From TrEMBL:
SUPFAM superfamilies: HAD-like. GO terms for cellular component: cytosol. Gene3D superfamilies: HAD superfamily/HAD-like, Putative phosphatase, domain 2. The keyword Hydrolase applies. Its EC number is 3.1.3.18, 3.6.1.1. Keywords: Hydrolase. This is Phosphatase. GO terms for molecular function: inorganic diphosphate phosphatase activity; phosphoglycolate phosphatase activity. GO terms for biological process: DNA repair.
Length: 219
């Protein structure tokens, strides 16, 4: 079996321990804009979609004005330079180092906007890992396959040569919709059971298991 040439990582809940900050910021933003704060588990279930899509799903009667207002409030809080809310999982850097040393090409596909991802990469000093990145706003929201298509097109690869790694069923369905393989990591927004219900090669406990899994699976 031929190993992938490109590994596409989701960001929130996969590389970075950001699930709770996202939930807290979303609830705060709704309240500040005069709307009832959504239930935490409802927010959790939607993480992985683009910010406007999450807000539309959470509003009982969404209007574009309300969506835009909440999105601006959320972004102002989340992108505040004094808000150091971007912490990588401890096993993320060693995993990325191993994969890069083994010759895998690495990329990111995230529901964050471009400003959010650029801020996250800057805070975590991970810019040297990524050959390409794809964000919400530049592509349709997951589980659309367009982010995978865009990244593969940019790097001259077929989607079948890519592997997606993510913490939500949205990531795994995005991969399947693109014809790519996928591995789930039970470290973020969705439970192991939710990940097992989506297309996957494996569901791992964390990124520390990924290099070993790839070595075994593609031996």
């Amino acid at each position: 079996m031929t190993p992938p040439k490109l590994i596409i990582f989701d960001w929130d809940g996969t590389l970075a321990d950001t699930t709770q900050p996202i939930i807290d910021t979303m609830r705060r933003s709704f309240a500040e804009c005069g709307f009832p704060p959504p239930e935490a588990e409802r927010v959790r279930s939607l993480i992985g979609y683009s910010l406007p899509e999450i807000i539309r799903a959470l509003l009982e009667m969404p209007s574009e004005a309300a969506v835009a207002d909440i999105a601006r409030t959320y972004s102002a809080h989340y992108l505040n330079p004094n808000n150091r809310n971007m912490t990588l999982f401890p096993d993320a850097p060693p995993c990325l180092d191993k994969l890069k040393a083994q010759g895998f090409r690495l990329a990111v596909a995230t529901g964050k906007g471009r400003a959010g991802l650029d801020n996250a990469i800057s805070q975590t000093a991970t810019g040297g890992y990524w050959l390409a990145t794809a964000c919400a706003g530049e592509y349709p929201s997951k589980p659309s396959p367009e982010m995978v298509f865009g990244l593969c097109g940019e790097l001259g690869l077929d989607p079948k040569e890519a592997l997606v790694v993510g913490d939500t069923a949205h990531d795994l369905h995005m991969a399947a919709n693109a014809g790519a393989a996928a591995v789930g990591v039970a470290t973020g927004a969705h439970s192991r059971e939710q990940l097992l219900g989506a297309p996957h090669l494996a569901v791992l406990d964390g990124l520390s298991e990924l290099p070993g899994f790839l070595a075994r699976h593609y031996a």
